[in-house]
Amino acid sequence: MSQATSPLGTPAVRREGRDKVTGTARYAAEHTPPGCLHGSLVPATVARGRVLAVDTDDALALPGVRAVLTHHDAPRLKEPDDPILAVLQDDLVPHRGWPVALVVADTPEAAEAGAAALRIAYGTERHDVRLTADHPGLYTPDTVNGGYPAVRERGDTARALAVAPVQIDSTYTLGALHNHPMEPHATTAWWDGDGHLTVHDSSQGATQVRDSLATALGIPPERITVRSEHVGGGFGCKGTTRPQCVLAVMAARHTGCPVKVVLPRRRMAGLIGHRAPTVQRVRLGAELDGTLTAVDHEIVTHTSTVKEFVEQAAVPARIMYGSAAARTAHRVVALDVPSPSWMRAPGETPGMYALESAMDELASALGLDPVELRIRNEPAHEPDSGRPFSSRGLTACLETGAARFGWYGRDPSPAAREEGEWLTGTGVAAATYPVYITASGAFAHAAPDGSYRVAVNATDIGTGARTVLAQIAADALATALDRVGIEIGSSELPDAPVAGGSTGTASWGWAVHKACVLLRRRLREHTGPLPAEGLSVTTDTRAETGRESPYARHAFGAHFAEVAVHGRTGEVRLRRMLGVFAAGRILNSRTARSQFIGGMTMGVGMALTEASTMDPVFGDFTERDLAAYHLPTFADVPRIEAHWIEEEDPHLNPMGSKGIGEIGIVGAAAAVGNAVRHATGVRVRALPITPDTLLPYLL
Q1: DSSP secondary structure string, 617-671?
Q2: 348, 382, 610, 662: which is the annotated catalytic residue?
Q3: Percent of the chain, pLDDT > 70?
């Protein structure tokens, strides 16, 4: 099928859209088998210590309460693949919010009442939840997330910085953030009479949840079916198995009944992970013409005492700009906090905020246009590895974005534009995200009536995966899009990786493409009518994805933002935002634009509204609901545009596509922050930028 007639790239309407808006689509909490009980998680109310006693008498006396699981009587687990899943196994309390009991009852209301009636005695210990740049417990890990070395250096960075005629030395502080998907974490689980476990879980990957449960329970994966058919957002926090899933499974085994556990939003902040706070020092050295001679990016962050999780925030600086010398390093301290976890574009999002803010500061110091500064420092190859880029469209994104935004007509002087009591300004920032592709399986079937069925255990977390996979299949089969049926979201289908890290479509799609190409070949070789059962192909991409690419593969982008800042109140209003991206072949223009805009909107929230504040006394996050944790609304993002360049990259996968779920958020917050600086002349180096942070500089 030629590219002109291929369904790839067309704005095909999402297949599940009508089901979602009419309520037909069923989520994890909406599966209620006969006799289903409800579990209410009881979180620890101390920041560190032990459970000394649990008095369950009052709870068990309440109508409808069936059981109370504590570390005394909960089913025993094997060692799980993630330490956060070892719940109700001992009396330790590693942080506030850690599960110390589960009340199981006939109704959610009865379970909540039972949880409130429990009387728990704790032995407390001194806790530490405060991240500081000079914390005595800081250490350098061997690796950070993604398996990257914690420290990398090329050249003599210290000397290059010392002799550079222009230098920037700035520290940027980011607090914790939470994902807050529309659908809270939920699991419905039951055991059949033959010992088979069925789980409906709100997750980004049913294959991974199945394997994780098999490890924790010590049973073969074949005895577990996990379904994640519809998921109301995740943004990373549903990328791994979460405690509510294990608790539901344990309670179902303990009671012999199906059990549903749905986390109230107020419980999520202490249990399902967060983007870890960072303190980032960025030092840049440059010649007078803007050529970078040195880049030094140091990260300080926290993890929990339960497990080590280290944001790879300095890694983008290893590939972004050319310089003769560079040093990137990460240090971490284990605190008595909930375990941090994945959040959209982990590492790249906080790291590029600091790097792109520093680049804006350097442009200001040089009196050079920020777009031109970035273009002048385009590397010929990936600086960290020396590998050639499979494609690198950053310059095209910057130039295209500048033209669309009207960038070059601006007055570069800070605090120079007034509209009554409002100060206006514009800012720019670049974006990057690596291309990750992992092995996946897929099944393709041709029926005698000319229809096709394609199955893969992908997960649609709101991205339109069903639709794009159908487009890939139809293209490979050279058939009409409406002749292809797609099945996803069950561990009974061919194994597939999680919907995370922008790996989904690139990985699942490769397997779907391979299966459909093989099926089409079988159809060509077949003579006569198809048998009643049709023809089928099952395959995977382990061989293809197991070979290391000789290329550095990344997506790139550029963000442009215009803001207005009230001179007397410090209120910041985003007026417009524009993003241009280089992400290989765009497979569905409708869903791609939605993903880009969604990421950019999250970046606006990071810049202006979102914050998860750690209470040092009580050891928990104070913003635990959507009334306190301020997600951006339509009023906060009045005009936002997403565009992309035509980019052909033959070194990726058969579709020529890069992931697009993450790239939209990377750099977005920096563009807004740089616009605020241009409007006011004030450089705020901590997010979010709120009136209380700006006002002291404006009065």
Answers
A1: TT-SBS--STTTS----GGG-S-EEEEE-----TTS-TT-B---TTTTTTTHHHH
A2: 662
A3: 99
